[in-house]
Amino acid sequence: MEGETLKSRDAPRIPGYRIEGVLGRGATGTVYRARQLSVDRLVALKVLHEDLVGAKGAEKRLQREARATGRLAHPHIISAIDLGQIDGRWWYAMELVDGVSLQERMQAGTLSEREALRTFIAIAEALQHAFERGVVHRDVKPANILLERGGRALLVDLGLAFAEDDPLVTKSGTTLGTPHYISPEQARDPSQADVQSDLWSLGATMYHAVCGRPPFSGESVAEILSSVLYEPIPDPGALAPQISSGFALILRKCLTRDRSLRYATPAELFVDLERVRERRAPNVRRSALEPVAQSRGQRARRSAAVVVGAGLLAWFGWYAFWPDGRAPAESTPQVASDPAHDPTEKLLAAAEGATPELGPALARAVQLTRSLRPDSPAALRAATARAHIEGRLAAEIQRFQVTGEPRFTALVREHRYEDAAALVTGNFRHEFAAATGGAALPPDLEETFEAWLANLTSRLELERRETERRFRSALSAEWREHIQPEVRAHIEAGRWRSARSMLTTGVRDWAAEASLPRAGISEAVAENAVATLRESEITSALAQVDARWAELDTQLRGWVEERTNELRGAVEGRTLSDGASVLRTEWSLELERQKLAVEEMPAGLLHLALEEFAKGERELAELARNLAVEDARRGLAEFEEETQPAWRARRYTEVAEMHERAAVEVWRQPVRAE
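RE: above sequence
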């Protein structure tokens, strides 16, 4: 790399390195050519700008670049050497490459297919290596690919890269990447950038390298991003006719918005690039690719030229057939010499007239052409007029698309998908027919119009799918971040019925009340998303809750059985009179200890412990009654035997005193059925 010289007093002092020149300057730092003194080798040394000391975002980006590069070891990824800090300024040492960036190389002209394959096969290998280690680059572009003088290509600048386990990464914030090369999903939400986003960016870079322009352009960042999100790419084969059809198909597959049709991994792209290098067809189905943009009206003009050319050839052939070069008078159709009554002149005038006259004029031109002899001069003039009308219609199609597209885009951006679909499936056709007089379009113009509508339909479907994906993602996040913790909190507080309700009948309620991106989401889509979440996660969570309850219920049942038996023994041993009351008190205390309430026991499940408690309470009460009756009978028998002598001796006063003393004995207390 060539660089500018600098005075020694301007260079920062990094221990262990001697700075020898400047290689480049960026928004966050300067890259110096330096010598690592310990091993006497040249390196590139990136040093944070002095005015960014303390700027956490810039510091984290430089640290992230060093760490992401450091965890990768591949011949086509620049090597990390060291990372440090001096006087608050972070610096990062890396391998020095003797060469130029792909961006600088492209200033000299486009790459040949052979040179492009050599370069991008290497970069695909590098991205696969990073992908296998959980690293996503997120800013693949010509400026971040270096071409060594020996021909080696290297991927550099992992400042936007993230690794799944990098503590410095935050996946929220502004759109990351460079607009011309950024993927649609990354433009919408930077946190969605993954290896497929890198493959889109690599595809856009390859496209620029061989076609001489990026696939998407605009006068502002907003226009570029709008093109990335909605516009079809220009046909690479038309812009770069020197490339093979296989390579053009690879570019289109990289730049497919439907991610299920895009390359899934760099390894897949690598295989197809190798096949093209070996002059074999890539594994790409043209029918599975999104349509490319075409020059509007181009095919209509080509059709008109064919008609006019064929007419001219026929006329000249017919005219030249005669030896004197003149056509026989009887073969010339009778056309009025007055232009006002010449149907061809009327057609030409209609072609220059009001737009609503174009449809009827085209119908008259078709009819007139059919009525004339194909080899007559009048037929040639009619064909010329027809071609002129078709050219006007082609221009009207283009004008209609220019005015209609913003209406469609506005509806899509407002998530009014049904209204946008109505435009595509019917309204646009009716409006265009009404504007141009309602005649049927020629096949090639009809195909152009239908291709435009098909492109709008594809864009609408992609947007609808992306909106649904965001809704499902938000619903899953609501489940993970709010509902699951709330369910766990209910369980910890003993509110089992409330916890289980959130996983059964309450699912629709919390899903409806959650703050989710509902714009463009129909009731059916929302129901389906809830059903999918229920099947994938909620059902298993419910099973876990039920299993935990069953375990707790079984444990409580065992406690009730054990305590009932103990109390039964005490009642039978006459050391306890009311075992049922004791069981009730201890049951309440045990429920309190377990943070349980009877009204919060889950509905729809067995309550073995509660049933066992009711059974034990009933049995203990019955036992107490039976023993009381038994004791009363025995006491009465003993009392009668004790009072018998007094009765026989007619000592009634003594008998009365004996009754008064016995009145306070337990067996004399009444036994009540509870």
